Amino acid sequence: MTNIIDPIAEIDESRVGDQDVVIGKSRIIFRRFMRNRTAVAGLFIFVALFLFSIFGGFLTQWDKDTLDPLNIGMPPSPDHLLGTTQAGIDLMALIVDGTRTSILIGLIVGGVSVLISAVYGCTMAFFGGKVDATMLFILEALIMMPAILVVAVATSGSGGLKDLPSWLLLVVVLLFFSWMGTARLVRSLSMSLMQRDYVKAAKYMGVPSRRIVWRHLVPNIGSLLVLDFTRGITGAILAEVAFSFIGIGIKLPDVSLGVLIGQATGQVSSFPWMFWVPLTVMFLLTGSLAMMNDGLRDAFDPSSSSIGRAKTKTAKKVTK
Amino acid sequence: MSTNTTPVERLRDAGLYSPGDAVLSVRDLNVRFNSENGVVHAVRGVDFDLMPGKTLGIVGESGSGKSVTSMAVMGLLPETADITGSVRFKGKELLGLSDKAMCKHRGSDIAMVFQDPLSSLTPVYTVGTQIIEALTVHNPTMSKQAKEARAVDLLRMVGIPSPKDRLKAFPHEFSGGMRQRVMIAIAIANDPRVLIADEPTTALDVTIQAQVLEVLHTAQEETGAAVVMITHDLGVVAGMADDIMVMYAGKPVETGTVEDIYYNPRMPYTLGLLGAVPRIDTATKQSLVPIEGTPPNLALPVTGCSFAARCPMVSDACLHGEPELFPVPGVSVPGVEGQTLGHKAACIKAEELSGNADAHKIFHAPPKPVSKFDGVARVERDKVLELKDVKKHFPLLKGALIKRRIGTVKAVDGLSFDIREGECVSIVGESGCGKTTTLLEIMEFHPDQVGEVVIGGVSNKVATDHKTKMAMRKEMQMVFQDPTGALDPRFTVYEVLAEPLENLGMPKAAIRKRIMELMKLVGLQPDHVNRFPNQFSGGQRQRIGIARALAVNPKLVVLDEPVSALDVSVQAGVINLLDQLRAELGLSYLMVAHDLSVVRHISDRVAVMYLGNIVETGDVDDVFDNPRHPYTRALLSAIPVPDPQLERTRERIILEGDLPSPLDAPKGCNFATRCPVFAALPAAKQEKCLTLEPPLASEEEGAQDFACFFPDGEIDADMLVVHA
To answer: Which residue of A has its CA nearest to B534?
Structure first.
């Protein structure tokens, strides 16, 4: 045993002589994420769908505006891989377009709402007092507002926003209603960060408030924001599907997964592919995000058990 | 295996138990965890025998594996841990038992008292329910009345007043010390044979610590249980333990009786630990023994002596093969009653250390630094900080919608003192006495405050604009208690140190130069500036915190418990650094600390606070050697001394109860409710304490000020305790 010198172990040791092996936080998070198989699968599916929504158009020579009068309401065939609608439009082209719209809505709403809530929440926590009370009141009031009515009114075109494409309109409305929960979370988290000694230290050094928020608070709630970003995407996609399904979200000629599912519900028995294909894509999309989110949560949470067991590893060592 | 084993050993090997044998016997215990850095070998071969009714103290710094050992014995480690070896309770193997089987032993045969009393009781059940729960689990046949009677008995035993009524109280209605008593009551509910106390007093105030140690002592006497006392504080175990096991890097490095360990340490680590603790009973100002470096990384195999990297006596032989625990030659007296371990040390140089080895010489402790102000009389030095009648009262409000004031909490009630150049003033007292509020009041520095704060000649009454405030911030900086919390985890050391300098608008090149200076000043390697705080040990982090405070060249540094979060061995290094900086840079310190030994070591003057008032203040030697106020006397007597013989014969004043809520502070002397002198006074004299507030004044010129009518009064006999 003692005669065998492992060169890698020696390198490790020389590093330790200087200082204990310290691994960067981002590397630990990455490693932990990669250890969660489900999460990696989720990431893989999401990336695949994302690529599909951009390059999927090359898989079919049809586009969503062209009718194929020879194939009306046909099931999947070599000509139309996913079949056609009862108007003769290629379903593949529709799905590619719909997925793109859904992902776009999800990414924009998820990203921007996280930004809004981070800034809003940190401001509330940092200034406290009257500022906090007023901003909290506005936030509570927004939570009370019935989102569905506002969406219905806004997308029906009576809000004077007719010239905007319907998906952008939906993005704006969804954004308006999506950031409050996170903002409250950010507020309470920042409030506890405010009690940390390093924030106090900066205050006692006379560092201006704006700089404290920007340099000490925002980076330290980063992991929460990342988590909330993926959660926000899922939420936005689901909301879009739900609104479009009942007919108040995306309006034709724009296509989204919700629109496709909504259109097909009446004819599940006669044109099943028209219902099941967009539903499967939606499920893959939200499902993959949920799987990823689970892995991210594990990766960011230092107390999670994703470190693995000592038992199995030592057993391996013994057999060596 | 050798053939000449004793009958007891043969019985044990056969899995049987003889009455005279150890109740708990641990053999070759190994614990491994997985971590991001690989498998960590946290406990590497621990052996001990615990005799019935005896106390074993396990001492070591954090990460030495002492808590993991106790958790392994209790079967409380997560399933992911790999545990090998043997843990026998009365001859029965406990390792490998299922959780369900272990539950039979936990709480009835082996019980545990945890460190944090605030989180170990369920807040939604009354303490009575929780004690009765412990009884029900192991005695299903016991009647309800019997259980209740037993619970009352238990609460009385641990010294909770009016136990019958308190049974229905919820944990939040108890103070920390009281909760720890309840925890002890639950632990001894089923007459355990082994009681494991994992740092039972670390989270408590010194006066409360003395009470809880007393309760543990009674509990042990009442139940006859053997106690495993896990602690990092050599003082706490000195009076309690029969045997000591010193752990380092997951391995016991020295075992023996208390006398062996304290008076005749044979392992350099033990010697260093003993020298690193400041003593409250010595006035001689000598620097402490620092143990440089950090414990080894246990994710890697240990090839030589694990302490070699930090040992001043290291030689080539130490690096080859880890030394086993060998009996120390010539000192062990076989056959002495209670000599269960024998004096053993894991050091190949154990013999060289025999006799009276001087830790200061071996560990190259630096000489005590001398400040340029030391020769100047106090009255001739400039004042760097002056407080005049500073008050901080918090209104106590009640009501959900419309708040009405039902009282005032006088956190700080008229404080006046000053700090001169080059001196260190400490504020001591129990938590809740207002010492942290005082610091915050000074740091806030706002014109609307009640009372005047003058820092470097600038009064808070005139500091209205940003510029004067910045000037004041330059004069005074703060070092925080928790070095981890005080540094932004996302900043490199460079950014941490650059922040105050950038704030002053210093040019980039100058900042760079200054940071290199600072790193050298606090004894860190300048090329470590690009590392993150989590890449440093606790002591190094505190050095970074100190460097940040010194960045702007302040005159006064406010230290909020600067070493209480650090290990003893590291603490000594930081204290020495503070001492040295004070002398070299002519700094003044305002320190808040609960560890009076540290205060005695580092301070020139001390102020004892009780309920928002200073009750005694003066030169540290005057106050500590000749305390006049009964509260100071009680505080001082509560500090355990790392000297077993002294600790066993010393008279102790055990204060009853906790700090009263500032809300119902007594009318006359604040301290009257807990005062040991007051309790012994005749009723006629008590009247004076209850109606008049004693002024803070000195008896003779040059002596300390104190606020008591009967400074040298006799102490109530009930509150005096001596351990035989």
So the answer is: A22
Which of B105-114, B140-149, B330-339, B640-649 has the weakest average pLDDT?
Answer: B330-339
Query: Looking at the predicted structure, is the pLDDT value of residue A291 above 70?
Result: yes
The tokens for A203 are 């205050």
Amino acid letter for position A210: R
Give the three-state DSSP class for A211.
Answer: helix
For residue B368, give the nearest of B360, B359, B377, B379 by alpha carbon.
Answer: B360
Residues B393, B342 contacting (CB under 8 angstroms): no
Name which of A200, A204, A220 is nearest B490 (Cβ-Cβ). A220
Residue-wise pLDDT for B303-337, tens only, equals 888 888 888 888 888 888 888 888 876 554 444 44
> Which residues of B sit within 8 Å Cβ distance of A?
32-37, 39-40, 78-82, 294, 297, 299-300, 443, 469-470, 473, 477-478, 480-482, 485-490, 499-500, 503, 531-532, 534-535, 548, 552
Q: With CA atoms as reference, report the closest residue to B296 among A6, A13, A314.
A: A13
Closest CA to B378 of B339, B418, B416: B418
DSSP B661: P
**DSSP-derived 3-state class of residue A72:** coil
CA–CA separation, B131 vs A103, rounded Å? 56
Buried b (16+ CB within 10 A) or exposed e, B361-388: ebbebeeeeebebeeeeeeeeeebbbbe
Q: Which of residues 24-53 of A touch B (CB under 8 A)?
A: 25, 28, 31
> B503, A196: Cβ pair inside 8 Å?
no
Length of chain A in residues, anyone? 320
Amino acid letter, residue B95: L
Q: What is the largest CA-CA distance in chain B?
A: 86
Longest dimension (CA), chain A: 84
Number of Cβ within 10 Å of residue B526's Cβ equals: 11
Q: Encode pLDDT of A120-143 as tens digits.
A: 888 888 888 888 889 999 998 888
CA neighbor of B378 nearest in space, from B407, B420, B337:
B420
What Å distances lie between residue B582 and A205, B279, B288, B373, B513, CA to CA?
Answer: 21, 21, 16, 10, 22
CB atoms within 10 A of CB B124: 7
Q: Phi and psi at residue B629, in whole multiples of 5°? A: -75, 135
E strand segments, B580-706: 588-592, 605-610, 613-619, 651-653, 697-698, 705-706
The H or E element spanning position B422 is: none
Calculate ∠ Cα B452-B457-B462, nearest 5°.
Answer: 55
Q: How far is CA A94 from CA A57, A66, A89, A254, B190, in A?
A: 10, 11, 8, 10, 72
Report residue A77 as tokens: 């065939």
In whole angstroms, give the CA distance from residue A79 to residue B281.
Answer: 95
Nearest chain A residue (CA) to B302: A13
* pLDDT at residue B3 greater than cutoff 60: no
**Sign (positive/negative) of CA torsion B440, B444, B449, B454?**
positive
Using the predicted structure, report yes or no on whether residue B426 has a pLDDT greater than 90: yes
Q: Which residues contact A189 (CB under 8 A, 6 or more apart)?
A: A121, A125, A221, A224
Contacts of B503 in chain A (CB under 8 A): 205-207
- pLDDT (0 to 100) of residue B338: 42
ipTM: 0.73
Q: Give the CA count within 13 Å in the CB-facing half-sphere of B63.
A: 14
**From A26, which residue of chain B is nearest by alpha-carbon distance?**
B490
Q: Which residues contact A239 (CB under 8 A, 6 or more apart)?
A: A174, A178
Which of A162-166, B365-369, B418-422 has the lowest average pLDDT?
A: A162-166
Query: From the CA of A205, how many Å to the nearest CA of chain B?
Result: 6
